[in-house]
Inverse folding.
């Protein structure tokens, strides 16, 4: 019998496994992953940004985790020879109507005790000569890294501590009784005293088969990206983001320098019709029916109808996407963009159509369920892992 089984080999599950085993070497810990390698889904399709936390309400999980997470992620990379770069980020106002929101964002950065600067036009173009901006906020602590390499190192360290990882093991049933938990996969049966659900896109499914009664459902949103051609990389020196509209749940099209030297632009954020809908027409019938039966989808759709239609229009019309990107970098042209593989964001939603904005956990006597780990989850993964371990300790006292 295991002391704890962790379900899900993304960066959150790996961080949890690593910290739990490191702090409790005597525990017999198993990590289960349904794919043939770890970090294959959300983590493996991440843009690689080490976020600062400037967008988040002071005192929230997001603000707390992002700031501490960025610091611990950089230290982890230094300690383990993982390449990273603190290149900074510009959030730019492209017209004077956005200056009020930009100023509020700057003040929020100060409230969150971040290293931020408010820049005028001349100061902005001194950093990003090709950007269209009247002013900007520079976030100095923002960086870039390859989260797949971070995940691989976490797995190696976990196994070095004598933790066990089993790949190609998809959980199909969970039975919790007074003394133990029985977890059946597609191949084997395991018993454990406790389990932790870090299954990302499938975390709601794992919670439900584990007997957790929750109003939360994970809705997949596909983030579609393009890469700038190599001869256009010089147009972007750092990371360039628009001023977000607080009425909408996504940050808008932005430019991101990558740790491998490339430059990405995106995303379009559109509803996926399966949990792992990386292509426009990736559909799993049962998952699509489950998504479309969820009444929260329709309430969200009515609330953000105009935005949603715009995202779908840009998804199928490259010219429209490029026009949006040109608001930030006017010099880019349609032929400068090469399609990339999309990513899928696991967004928790309740039946009222409300997007769960912060990290969200539920638990039972023998389990913890991470039911929402939105951006900046990768940035904050080391801190989230510590938080989950603390919850484990409190629950098992």
């Amino acid at each position: 019998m295991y002391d704890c089984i962790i379900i899900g080999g993304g960066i959150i599950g790996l961080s949890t496994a690593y910290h739990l085993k490191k702090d409790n070497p005597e525990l017999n810990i198993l990590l289960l992953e349904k794919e043939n390698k770890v970090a294959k889904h959300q983590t493996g399709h991440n843009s690689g940004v080490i976020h600062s936390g400037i967008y988040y309400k002071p005192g929230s999980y997001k603000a707390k985790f992002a700031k501490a997470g960025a610091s611990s992620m950089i230290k982890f990379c230094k300690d383990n020879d993982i390449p990273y770069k603190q290149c900074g980020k510009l959030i730019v106002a492209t017209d004077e109507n956005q200056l009020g929101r930009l100023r509020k964002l700057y003040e929020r950065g100060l409230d969150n005790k971040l290293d931020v600067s408010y820049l005028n036009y001349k100061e902005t173009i001194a950093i990003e000569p090709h950007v269209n901006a009247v002013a900007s906020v520079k976030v100095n602590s923002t960086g870039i890294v390859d989260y797949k390499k971070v995940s691989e190192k976490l797995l190696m360290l976990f196994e070095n501590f004598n933790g066990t990882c089993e790949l190609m093991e998809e959980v199909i049933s969970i039975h919790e009784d007074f003394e133990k938990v029985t977890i059946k996969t597609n191949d084997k049966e395991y018993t454990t005293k406790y389990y932790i659900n870090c299954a990302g896109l499938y975390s709601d499914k794992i919670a439900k088969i584990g007997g957790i009664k929750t109003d939360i459902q994970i809705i997949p949103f596909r983030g579609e990206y393009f890469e700038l051609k190599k001869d256009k990389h010089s147009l972007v020196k750092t990371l360039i983001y628009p001023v977000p509209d607080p009425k909408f749940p996504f940050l808008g099209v932005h430019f991101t320098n990558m740790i491998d030297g490339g430059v990405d632009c995106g995303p379009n954020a559109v509803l996926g019709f399966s949990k792992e809908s990386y292509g426009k027409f990736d559909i799993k019938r049962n998952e699509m029916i489950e998504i479309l039966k969820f009444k929260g989808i329709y309430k969200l759709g009515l609330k953000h109808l105009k935005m949603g239609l715009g995202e779908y229009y840009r998804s199928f019309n490259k010219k429209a996407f490029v026009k949006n990107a040109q608001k930030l970098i006017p010099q880019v042209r349609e032929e400068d963009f090469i399609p990339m593989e999309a990513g899928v964001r696991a967004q928790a939603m309740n039946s009222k159509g409300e997007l769960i904005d912060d990290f969200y956990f539920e638990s039972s006597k023998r389990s913890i369920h991470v039911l929402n780990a939105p951006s900046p989850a990768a940035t904050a993964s080391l801190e989230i892992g510590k938080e989950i371990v603390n919850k484990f300790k409190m629950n098992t006292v």
